[in-house]
Amino acid sequence: MASSTGPELERLIQLLARLPGLGPRSARRAALHLIRKREALLAPLADAVRVVADRVVTCTACGNVDTSIPCAICQDPRRDPAVLIVVESVSDLWALERAAALNARYHVLGGVLSPLDGVGPDDLNLASLAERAADPAVAEVIIALNATVDGQTTAHFITDMLQHLPVKVTRLAHGVPVGGELDYLDEGTLVAAIRQRTTL
Amino acid sequence: MASSTGPELERLIQLLARLPGLGPRSARRAALHLIRKREALLAPLADAVRVVADRVVTCTACGNVDTSIPCAICQDPRRDPAVLIVVESVSDLWALERAAALNARYHVLGGVLSPLDGVGPDDLNLASLAERAADPAVAEVIIALNATVDGQTTAHFITDMLQHLPVKVTRLAHGVPVGGELDYLDEGTLVAAIRQRTTL
Which residues belong to any copy of the Toprim domain (chains A, B) (predicted)? Predict the structure, then answer.
């Protein structure tokens, strides 16, 4: 490759190949696509990556990424100050924002407890969560972690950690996904859906 | 989304989503990955995209992309000036360079003839190919186009176009791919492989 692609292009391809979802081959395709769409895509992307590299920061309050500290969500006066939603990652925060189910603030843990991967309580933003939950304004902490073993372990750890506080700790409901077919669901989900059935 | 991700991040996600192989969801994952690997990936990518946007140009001689005109391959004195390899795209050029099968120069057509898609002879770099093939130094033109209907139509068009020149026009061999199993090959490939069988 080095003989046919110059070092500049080779470097771009190598960096693109490190993005999740792209490999060496698709990174080459992406690089060629960028060069073909020079005005429409390559130049704007150069600006956009530079702006994000220079300006995007992690919010020291909640762990969200934005161009200001505190982030736009933490600053938003319309958000309910009584509710904190605990999520594993910024992508989960974005998913909940897209669903627009709640108008509250978030707390990004930056992972979940995972003894096998060597992730302990000190590796997560748990101390700052305890601090924020101790704020008298906070009435409820909604734990919105993945329904995996590690996610549920972390949920229990947080419940224990916040037990001494006068704050209500809740978690997302388990059940049949909207649009889901019973035939394709695992037994655990069906049992949860039956146990937590609601009156019509 | 607009409320949770700032406009800078949103713009980066939108541009990444237009790369081949990435969609809206994987573009968000890629953007978050970039922010997480700020020093190792985001800042270098910002530089790399800027450098490519500023410096990479299309070679006016062969159609390759590089930082100089003529490109490194056209300038390389070790390349055989007697052989021209005709390819559809820069990615095909790169594929042949990786195979390192030939030490010759290239001519990138920028597509193949496709009446259905409205691609005619004037849309491809055919006039410049005729010009280069007319150079007395060129003894052979190897047509390395895809073995598709459009690729073969284009190969025939080029053969006709160069007929009056004292140049040998060849094409890549058809046959069993190295490592390929006969059971999985189509009849056309098997017929070609039998017709063009070689003595052991």
Answer: 82-177
The percent of residues in chain A predicted with pLDDT above 90, rounded, is: 64
Report yes or no: A78 and A103 within 8 Å, Cβ to Cβ. Answer: yes
Contacts of A162 (CB under 8 A, 6+ apart): A130, A133, A141, A169
Pick A12's closest partner by Cβ from B8, B52, B97: B52
Q: How confident is the model at residue B157 (pLDDT cuts 50, 70, 90)?
A: very high
- Find tokens 């190295």 and name the residue: B178
CA distance B113 to B124: 8
- Closest by Cβ to A91, choosing from B20, B29, B44: B29
ipTM of the complex: 0.77
Residues of A in contact with B48 (CB under 8 A): 8, 11-12, 15
Residue A2's pLDDT band, with cuts at 50, 70 and 90, is very low
Asked if pLDDT for residue B3 goes beyond 60, the answer is: no
Per-residue model confidence (pLDDT) at position B48: 93
CA distance A92 to B60: 48
Q: Which residues of A touch B73 (CB under 8 A)?
A: 3-4
**What domains, with CATH codes, occur in chain B?**
7-55 (1.10.8), 65-171 (3.40.1360.10)
Model confidence band, residue A4 (pLDDT cutoffs 50, 70, 90) = low
Query: So what's the pLDDT on residue B4?
Result: 63
Q: Is the pLDDT of residue A160 over 90?
A: yes
Q: Is the pLDDT at A151 greater than 80, yes or no?
A: yes
- B1 and A93: CB-CB below 8 Å? no
Contact flag A6-B48 (C-beta cutoff 8 Å): no
**Whole-angstrom Cα distance, residue B24 to residue A21?**
12
Name the nearest CA neighbour of B130 among B114, B118, B141, B146: B141
Using CA atoms, how far apart are residues B64 and A66, in angstroms rounded to an integer? 39
Partner-chain contact A18 B30, CB within 8 Å? no
- Looking at the predicted structure, is the pLDDT value of residue B74 above 70? yes
Q: Select from B12, B15, B28 the Cβ nearest to the Cβ of A91.
A: B28
pLDDT > 70 in chain B, percent: 98
Residues 6+ apart with CB under 8 A from A181: none
Judging contacts by C-beta atoms under 8 Å, the chain B residues touching residue A34 are: 19, 49, 52
Residue A51 contacts residue B45 (beta carbons within 8 Å): no
